[in-house]
Amino acid sequence: MTTLRRALTEATARIASVSPSPRLDAELLAAHALGCTREAMLLARLDDPVPATFAELVDRRLAHEPVAYITGSRAFWTIDLAVGPGVLVPRADSETLIEAAVDHFAARPPVRILDLGTGPGTLLLAALAEWPQASGLGIDASETALDYARRNAAALGMADRAVLRRGDWTAGIDERFDLILANPPYIGTAETLPHEVAGHEPAAALFAGVDGLDEYRRIVPDLPRLLAPGGIAAIEIGHEQGDAVLALVRAAGLSARLVRDLGDRPRCIVAG
To answer: What is the pLDDT of residues 56-100, one digit of tens each?
Structure first.
């Protein structure tokens, strides 16, 4: 009998050809096949027989399908989110925005939160989990993404605190918010992306004109009218876009500072 322990070693070697984190990928796929958490598997299930579906899951990963699409979920901040085709997979880098907000609101929590381009509810629901007394509005142009966001809000017990609405960035929004979060598309149309991203995730959530700045040019000018006194906007950027987005924010009459992610790359502009 082949044990799961051995199968994980073999799968890791195979997945290494398509992923920078082959062992983690293999473990997540195996846990999904077992129907348990990765932690529970590592603690007590490594000598189990190999689940019947594991080989098929590994084959899907070898075809560059994102692990989050295969398992149907992704951990982000303190929550787990359902994800799938048609939505941007949450990245750990985006947690930089939540960290910046936590730092800013150490003395007083935000009451109203706006998430522009909410996707499956990633930033909005993470923020609502952080501040249980807050409520928020999530905007997205994609009904597929909003369907995931609504399901995630319900699963997390936040459906009564999160309004999720189809929209075009800031258009039609006329209230003020303590915290505005945004992870807009910021990839230049000529840039090359890994196959698992370009071949699976929605282009509308990735690409933003030749220089990747088109959506910032639309969002940033409206921030002053949407921010409540003492509020901030935390905006994700590509690691080479810091100077350009700082300039846009300052041109809109707001202060701006750059926040780096755990890899020490420029990742977030805090405007206020």
So the answer is: 999 999 999 999 999 999 999 999 999 999 999 999 999 999 999
- Domain 4-63 maps to which CATH number in 1.10.8, 1.20.120, 1.10.10, 3.40.50? 1.10.8
Which residues of the chain are in CATH 3.40.50.150 domains? 85-271
Angle CA 192–198–201, to nearest 5:
145
Q: What's the longest Cα–Cα distance across the chain?
A: 67
| Spatial separation of the C-alpha atoms in residues 93 and 265, rounded to whole Å | 9
For 161-212, give the secondary structure using H, E and C. CEEEEECCCCCCCCCCEEEEEECCCCECCCCCCCHHHHCCCCHHHCECCCCC
In the structure, what pLDDT confidence band is assigned to residue 136 with cuts at 50, 70 and 90?
Answer: very high
pLDDT tens readout for residues 189-244: 878 788 888 788 887 888 888 898 999 999 999 999 999 999 999 999 998 999 99
Reduced to 3 states (helix: H, G, I; strand: E, B; else coil), residue 269 is strand
Helix (H, G, I), strand (E, B) or coil at 140: strand
Q: Which helix (H) or strand (E) holds 154?
A: helix 143-155
- From the number of C-beta atoms within 10 Å of its C-beta (0-12, 13-18, 19+), residue 264 rates as exposed
CB 184 within 8 A of CB 220: no
Q: Which string of b and e fits 173-204 if b means at least 16 CB within 10 Å?
A: beeebbbbbbbbbbbbeeeeeeebbeebbbee
